[in-house]
Amino acid sequence: MVVTDEGADQLASRQRSRAIRVALEHLKPSERDVLVLRFVAGLSHREIAIAINLDETSARKRTSRALAKLRSVMPGNLE
Q1: Which CATH class is domain 5-73?
Q2: Less crowded by CB within 10 Å, the N or C end of the chain?
Q3: In this model, does residue 24 exceed pLDDT 80?
């Protein structure tokens, strides 16, 4: 079986996506929520603050802390 660079890239991408999903399970729902709003929905910190009824500084801190926690539970950590 021959694995092309494209096939290897796709496999690595699927493995990374799975690792992120598993790591997200280690976060509290409020931590997952801010990360989804930031990185999936693409909201700004201001928009996140409005969506979850926080001031912008608190939303920024919550996002930063959640991302740090996600990195800490990721196998091999996120780059």
Answers
A1: mainly alpha
A2: N
A3: yes
Q: What is the pLDDT of residues 44-67, one digit of tens each?
A: 999 999 999 999 999 999 999 999
32 near 66, Cβ under 8 Å? yes
Domain positions in the chain are 5-73
77 residue type, one letter: N
- Residues with Cβ within 8 Å of 19's Cβ and at least 6 positions away in sequence, in order, are 74, 75, 76
| Nearest-5° Cα angle at 52, 49 to 54 | 50
Between 17 and 31, residue with greater pLDDT: 31
